[in-house]
Known about the structure:
The protein has 8 helices and 18 strands. By secondary structure, it is an alpha+beta fold. The strands form 3 sheets. Strands 1, 2, 3, 4, 5, 6 and 7 form a 7-stranded antiparallel β-sheet that branches. Strands 8-10-9-11-13-12 form a 6-stranded antiparallel β-sheet, covered by helices on one side.
Amino acid sequence: MSLASAAPSPPTDRRRAYSAGVVAGMITLAVGWLVLAQAGFPGVADASSGFALDTGDCVRLADDDPSALQAVDCSLPHDGEVVGLATHPDSGRPFPGDDVTRVWFEQSCQAVTTDYLGADHLTTTLDAPIVVPSERDWDDGVHHATCYVTVGEGSDPLTGSVKGRADDFARGDIVAIDRLMPGDCFDPAGSSDPFGLRSGDVVELVDCSGSFAGLFFGRGNLPYPDDAPIPSDNELTDESTSTCSAAFESFFGVESAVGYTFRFWRPSRSRWEDGDREVLCAVLSDRPIDGPFVPADYPELHKLGTGQCFGLLPEQTAESLTLDDHVRPIRCSQPHRGQMIGGGTFDADLRFPGDAQARALTEQECRSLFLAFIGIEPGESEFGRFPYWYPNEDAWADDDTRYACAILDEDLTGSLQGSRR
Length: 421
């Protein structure tokens, strides 16, 4: 019996860079808008520093300097609009560092952008880059970032102001994974394999009260500076798991994410070198997940009483299930995946008998419980090969001597108690 949940395995991924920072973040901006920049617009002023602009200024993106935005009359077609300025509170102090300022400016610009549009930009087709001061800019007295929005790649140029017009740019039912919002439920669009999805792939938003393949619950930034080399695969997995575990606990209102399974998309090596540190987190399954999905109401397997029927959560199998994993209690009259037939504890004061003996003792106890619950011996039953959980040496040393027995099958309806099946 394992007392720790297995770490989620992240899909291999290629990620886009941060939309922040004068060097790394604005690279995506320069490439994504090269065609529009070359097309030219009437009424464009000379290129100026993005720091010289003000809220409400409409801009064209310069193709030679990603930190330079060109002001343009808002009545003419344009690339974007300044939605606000975020002034750092430590303007009287030495430069805090690229990583410190980037995080603060990103968070501040996110709030500024939401206020200006009337909704989070991720619920729209708009992108939200920012121009962040470098150390040299800071020393020259520039202590604010310029927050602005642009139309998504392939979209028509803007005309007029975007202020308060989030609804005019609302995303449709088909969205890229990296634009999902916490609480979005989705199915793959054009693919039958949820585990093959990459962060830039599109998915179809669906009603969370029905069934779905995935539920997006959060995102977060890995705690590494922009110039840090990509860590080892194990370290990156551990940090991504930790980041998404915190998001899981916050979104679903549970004290711990241990016992639940989820997936995440992390930066690839190429995206890491571009400064991407963002991790995207979702509950994901190759079998339909029945909504609503309410982890706070799901107990651990060992807390279920004899006769309780239950369903497995995403990615759980009879082979992977542990006593500390959470399961979904279901009325036995409804379709379910398993039913508890009993359990107990061994005397923790006794010396650990060895793995083989602990397993044999558990099997003996569970065969007796099976007979009492089903009404026939396991060898006479269609469920003769049933799962049971027993303590290993490490668990025994921690005074955890629980054992339990259950029946698991693909399609169960009704209680098996006294069924003699």
